[in-house]
């Protein structure tokens, strides 16, 4: 309570001194204004006397530089002669001035503090992220190290038999997998794309080859799609340099078209009677 | 031949114009009612029209209509000249009230001289006349077509495409049909037909209501924020008022060219001693050119780039509705306001580069106008010389010549006009032909007079583009042969 | 002490003087000179918008000397800005003529030139002539596109800074200080 009263106390007491301070400031301003007016009058007089003529040559830069030099010398002289002005003696004024300065600097510092804090937060979050990353990288490093050690060990052991056994094991597993897939595929294809029966064949033949000789075509056994695929696969794997197989009568044209249109097989651009499997593995 | 002509006319249209054609082409409108115009190509449209055209009984009429339609839409592609017909003030006995009558009479007249097709159409209270003259020698050639626009009950004709060979006949027939005395070149020509009509029909609008029939546009005041203050705003306001008074507030009609010609003695001999004592007439020509010269002059004035006295001169000239002005130094009664010899200097100063030739041109022109004003004492020697006949050797009327059948001389034209030969040589109509052939560059005839002025011939450009003006202007000081003329 | 004018010196009655009037408290006044239609009002608006001071005044004129009607009420002018259109020689000529009416005291940091519009091949002043003019008068030059709002604000801010200094509102800095720190545009010695 006592502290509060003492805090409020100065405010009440100092209203008088505020008025005094204002008066002092006003006086100060008046003095300065008088000075300004005097200087102004002097300037006007000089102007009237001197007329400050404007030369009409095209490049007044020399005159301007001379004037500038004069002015600079004058300014330097003035600044040298003048003592740095100090605040008027009134305590209140000085107090208020100092307070204002302090408030300004405090405000500035607070802003800086806020800024610095936010920056710090950002930096902290970055550090966290980096730490996470570091942990992961360390894990990767340990795993890699293990692998490397194992490989070295194996090499050192010089035990090819183990390697070979490993390879064989892998090969068997893969073969089994391949066979399984092939079987699935065969079942699927057989179910959905069976070999065309007689009626279908006949209809198709009538549509597309009206003038053909019936007898020659009837003898031909039309291959089921699965056989076509098998042939294509074999040819592709066995002789990649010449992956084309000839289309002959056994290949039912609609199936060939199906393969070509879905992109599974490609025609030989130089020879339309040849097709090959699209190299999916390349 | 008809088909090719029709095709050529059709091809000139743009695809966007096809609805317009269908609406307005009366000859073929019935057959067009079922036409679908979406995404139609030019070739298709032309074929379609040609098919329907084949069964037409009167192809010439259809072609003429289409041609006139094209012209109505694209009248700014041709250069129109305005002619005035001096009408004999007789009673209304021959008053032609309908287009058909007019057309018939005109056709009769024209047919008596030329092998031509005549077609008249009335559109928005004006007659559009198309005269297609077939060439006598080459029957297969396309006809040379003259288009004339006439506002009924006025004296004015707007003509384009008139060739010298047919000019006399066509004009004579028109004069007869309109009960005229003779036809006079109004010295007014341009590309924008509407503007020409506005200028000519609203000749007497002047001053603040100078609008030539246009509607005034609102004045836009610039609002400045509080703290901005224009020091010259009084001047600006005065200028704006002056412009409004002299040029009016409406959008001015579009003229492409204004030409001033001056013919006087050379008085700049202090600068060019070689020409001292020369009594020969000195020809000057100033040409203003641009998309819309009047608007440009107004904007220049509003921008403060043209000096005030000169503006009055130009502003008043709008009332005389000429766009080629030949001033005869002999005439002192002209209402050109030139208060002092200073006025032209100021305006010309902006059109000629300041640092080249200005002193000479200033004094030259100042002295020219001085001499113009003092002209009364000097006028005598020149009034005796018939205007162009001495100076333009090409265009002399050869009186000894027997008039050949088709090529009649100007002398004969005078006979036609009122049955008597006119002896007066500086009547205005005499000057039509050579003036209409006036080209910008000097012709070889003026060699003798060029010497003193060779270095004054400048084509200098200083463009003053204002933010709110959309014209660009060029002024040229040329020496070209000019003609004395009374107006 | 008055001296006689020699034949090259002329007395101009209508000169613009920097110190002929008393300053008004916290008021800064700028004068923009340029032919009509060059963009003075747009620039003035940009300046007024960029400034927070309520006592800023921007005056525009097409030529000097200023009309005499208001010379009594006109406040003291702290800074003069000349605008030249690099495509029009008329604007250059007008600025040149107006420069005759400026007192030499202004050239110590209270004058600034602005050139607008990029010169094209067909219609231009020589850029050299503009820079020569600026060098002749020892003042700085800005380039500005009067149609671009961003340009206007940037130049307006710079001009405001200069104006603050010219009006004396920045303690410790005189216009001469900024003036001495600018360098020549054309490296020619006279």
UniProtKB/TrEMBL annotation, chain A:
Compartments where found: Chromosome, Centromere; Nucleus
This protein's UniProt keywords: Centromere, Chromosome, Coiled coil, Nucleus
Main subcellular location of this protein, as a coarse class: nucleus
InterPro entries: Centromere_CenpK (IPR020993)
Domain of life: Eukaryota
One matching Pfam family: CENP-K
A GO CC term assigned to this protein in UniProt: nucleus
Any GO BP annotation: mitotic sister chromatid segregation
Family to which the UniProt record says this protein belongs: Belongs to the CENP-K/MCM22 family.
Protein name: Centromere protein K
Species whose genome carries this gene: Paralvinella palmiformis
Organism phylogeny: Eukaryota, Metazoa, Spiralia, Lophotrochozoa, Annelida
TrEMBL record, chain B:
Cited Pfam families: CENP-N (PF05238)
Subcellular location as annotated: Chromosome, Centromere; Nucleus
Sequence segments annotated as region (Disordered): 389-487
One GO-annotated biological process of the protein: chromosome segregation
Polar residues bias spans: 478-487
Biased composition (Basic and acidic residues): 391-404, 423-432, 462-476
Keywords annotated in UniProt: Centromere, Chromosome, Nucleus
Cellular component terms (Gene Ontology): chromosome, centromeric region; nucleoplasm
Protein family membership: Belongs to the CENP-N/CHL4 family.
Protein name stated in the entry: Uncharacterized protein
Organism whose genome encodes this protein: Paralvinella palmiformis
From TrEMBL, chain C:
Keyword Aminoacyl-tRNA synthetase attached: no
GO cellular component term of the entry, any: nucleus
Leader peptide range in chain numbering: none
UniProt KW keywords: Centromere, Chromosome, Nucleus
UniProt cross-references to Pfam families, sorted A to Z: CENP-M
Record carries keyword Iron: no
Localisation per UniProt entry: Chromosome, Centromere; Nucleus
InterPro entries in UniProt: Centromere_Cenp-M, P-loop_NTPase
Gene3D superfamilies: P-loop containing nucleotide triphosphate hydrolases
The protein's name: Centromere protein M
Predominant location: nucleus
